[in-house]
Amino acid sequence: MLKFNIQKSFKGQDKHSKDLHFKGEVDLSGVCTIFGDSGAGKTTLLRCLIGLESCTGNITFQGQQWLGSNGNNKIHKLAVEDRNIGVVFQEPRLFPHLNVQQNLELAVRKAKNSTFTIHHLAEKLGFSDLLSHQTTQLSGGQKQRIAIARALLTNPALLVMDEPLSSLDVTSKRLLLPFLKQVSEQIPILYITHSEHELFYLSKQMLLVNDGQVEAIGEPQKLFLDSHLSLIKFAQQGLILTVLVKEYDQQEALIKGCLDGQTLYVSAEQAPTTSQIQVKINSRDVIVALQPIEGSSLLNCLSAQIVDYSQDNQKAVVLTLKVQSQCIYAYITLRSFNKLKLSVGSYVYAHVKTMSIIN
Ligand SMILES: Nc1ncnc2c1ncn2[C@@H]1O[C@H](COP(=O)(O)OP(=O)(O)OP(=O)(O)O)[C@@H](O)[C@H]1O
């Protein structure tokens, strides 16, 4: 469990800055993603938690006090190096005067009984042939793989990552995302990202940061559907759903899947390698009708119920359509909404024009 109630002020440094106040309790297991708008305070929260940024208040991790009062009204702050955290930033920050092996050996020396070895991680992350290379000769993706290995070799109780994949190519992301998911079964990960794809692929829970505060903590699917949260403006553009793979038709490059018991066809150049896929359905790609549309090129028609709706200032309505356990949004005009006499509880047919696979 990670518990925190901390304040941070940048006012001395920047008169325009607001005070930030973060409060929350997270039962850390798997990946917990820190998500929010640019400037919301994600990096500041993370840096305060791990002790790289000074702040006031209380932090405890798995019963160990990292920050707080020690009873005599004196501030207790556990040194960063005693918190047993592995840290990976957007920039790999390797020692340029050492080769890959030497960079990693520094971490091994720091660790107490590491469960990982250089050999094992080099194989898993595909850099066995780079061990004798100077780090200055490596690409960004190679450096980041080594930075992740270095963090793991310190045998951390918590791995903290600030947008670790944001500047990497697709191939590196394809290698690292499943790896991190696997690692998170052993070591909890606190992970900042702007990518919805990474968020939904990795996280069991998310910590939503908004305007210098923790706005909500919970499962991504639930928070993305909560119309009271700031996330809604972003979520209403489209939601991510889990689809079970039934079969793949190579000739038509089409996956036949199952979404909450209903058939869904998804275009894919290759057969999926997993038994379930995640697809993003944009709200503007959903056509709502009172009957199934016949004789059209539309492949997907889901029967759904309207469970909520909101009107935006563009004279459009965003409908929340529940398929069974999962929801999609549909963005329609106010005129269509009125014409179809829609309301909460109405049953409709949601025709999905297109969707993208995100894992
Ligand atoms: N060193 C600093 N001096 C003054 N203000 C700062 C400093 N660092 C952060 N801030 C302010 O604190 C707020 C939160 O910044 P932070 O970098 O934590 O946001 P973020 O959510 O991580 O943003 P991004 O996604 O763009 O990285 C911003 O208003 C920012 O201007």
Automatic annotation (TrEMBL):
Residues 1-236 form the ABC transporter domain. SMART domains: AAA. SUPFAM superfamilies: MOP-like, P-loop containing nucleoside triphosphate hydrolases. Residues 295-359 form the Mop domain. One of its GO terms (molecular function) is ATP binding. The keyword Cell inner membrane applies. Transmembrane segments: none annotated. Keywords: ATP-binding, Cell inner membrane, Cell membrane, Membrane, Molybdenum, Nucleotide-binding, Translocase, Transport. It comes from the Bacteria. NCBIfam families: modC_ABC. This is Molybdenum ABC transporter ATP-binding protein. The lineage of its organism: Bacteria, Pseudomonadati, Pseudomonadota, Gammaproteobacteria, Alteromonadales. The gene is modC.
